[in-house]
Design brief:
The complex is a heterodimer of chains A (about 170) and B (about 160). Chain A is of the alpha/beta class and about 170 residues long. Chain A contains six helices and five strands, in the order H-H-E-H-E-E-H-E-H-E-H. In chain A, helix 3 (about 45-55) links the parallel strand 1 (about 40) and strand 2 (about 65-70). Chain B has about 160 residues and is of the alpha/beta class. Chain B has one domain (about 5-120): Beta Polymerase, domain 2, CATH 3.30.460.80. Chain B is built from three helices and seven strands. Chain B has helices spanning about 1-15, 40-45, 105-115; strands at about 20-25, 30-35, 55-65, 70-75, 80-90, 95, 120. In chain B, strands 1-2-5-4-3 form a five-stranded mixed β-sheet, with helices on one face. Chain B has a two-stranded parallel sheet with strand order 6-7. The longest helix of chain B is centred in the N-terminal third of the chain and has 13 residues, at about 1-15. The chains are: A alpha/beta (about 170), B alpha/beta (about 160). The interface between A and B is medium-sized, with 11 and 13 residues.
């Protein structure tokens, strides 16, 4: 019902040619932004806050966001916690197993820049963006569920602005 | 305390010259053991009737700058006593015999101090890296003064 009721509005907003493509983009982006399924995957204490955000008090389900226990079915990966050098290849593998379009949210100081392990640590990767592209950074140690939700809302805005051509942006161009 | 002191006296008498008493705290005595007799020493601790040390709580490495140390915390659930055993090793080419056939718990501890402190464990059945990545090539990271590719020293 949602799409059908809004279709006239979309029709009127689109100027001139390219009518079908533009409308498709808007509808698809709207539907994708409303169902960002995220991977059931956590690395450290940030994962506890992520679970809290997913559970009934903060209830990510109302944003259309639910845990998926497989990277194949996930649109979004929260890198929730400290990425060690030993874990880094596994995180990269999980990211590569997700199907495009896919998004990464670096949650907390560790995933952003190494956090409290930035200095004097032999084991911790200084930011997950050294191995995979990151869309949203959420600061905090760990971020409260409200912060995580704010990050997700920003990501939704980003998804809504995307062109179909952007979807495969992380696939190497031939 | 007296109980513990008696234990140390018995050990120093059983291994003269090789085992010496060191002071750690009033509650618990500790002994320093020469690295060449480590296996005999732990066999004695485990099998002797007045010892019966059957539980290895922890096994750690220490970089004391001028030398390396291996520290065993061991206790007896039969005789209700504890003992700290220290072994000093040279910083160049540190080597020690495995005790993981005497205490199975020592297996992973020894793998860990091998990779983190570069202490070679002789006759250990499986010395693959335990905590470090499989392709680690930057040396033992817990040594003092160690630096690596992605290592950032905290400014003063």
């Amino acid at each position: 019902m949602g799409v059908a009721s809004k279709l006239p509005v979309y029709f009127e907003q689109v100027p001139g040619g390219g009518l079908v493509t533009t409308k498709l983009e808007q509808v698809l982006d709207w539907s994708r932004a409303s169902s960002l399924w995220y991977m059931l995957f956590g690395l450290a204490c940030c994962a506890i806050e992520m679970m809290c955000a997913g559970a009934s008090r903060y209830d990510f389900d109302r944003l259309g966001m639910i845990f998926r226990a497989s990277p194949r079915q996930s649109d979004l990966m929260f890198v929730a916690g400290t990425v060690t050098h030993k874990m880094a290849p596994r995180v990269k593998l999980l990211y590569e197993q997700m199907s495009s379009p896919k998004y990464v949210l670096a949650m907390g100081g560790c995933a952003t820049r190494g956090g409290p392990f930035y200095y004097d640590s032999y084991a911790v990767l200084k930011g997950v963006d050294k191995i995979i592209p990151v869309d949203i950074y959420v600061p905090g140690c760990p971020p409260r569920p409200e912060s995580l939700m704010e990050g997700c809302l920003h990501l939704m805005e980003k998804v809504k602005k995307e062109k179909i051509a952007d979807w495969s942006r992380d696939v190497p161009q031939q | 305390m007296s109980h513990s002191s008696k234990l140390v006296e018995q050990l120093t008498a059983a291994f003269p010259e090789k085992v010496t008493k060191i002071e750690l705290s009033p509650e618990q005595d500790a002994v320093l053991v020469e690295s060449i007799i480590v296996r005999d020493f732990f066999k004695y601790l485990k099998d002797n009737d007045s010892m019966k040390f059957d539980y290895l709580s922890s096994l750690s490495g220490v970089d004391a700058v001028e030398h390396l140390e291996v520290v065993y915390h061991i206790s007896s659930t039969v005789n209700k006593q504890k003992l700290t055993v220290k072994v000093k090793l040279p910083t160049e080419k540190p080597e020690i015999d495995t005790i993981c056939d005497i205490y199975r718990a020592a297996d992973w501890f020894e793998r860990e101090i091998c990779e983190l402190y570069g202490i070679n464990i002789k006759n250990h059945p499986d010395l693959r890296p335990l905590l470090l990545p499989e392709d680690w090539d930057e040396g033992p990271p817990m040594r003092k003064g160690w630096t690596g590719r992605d290592f950032i020293v905290k400014p003063e």
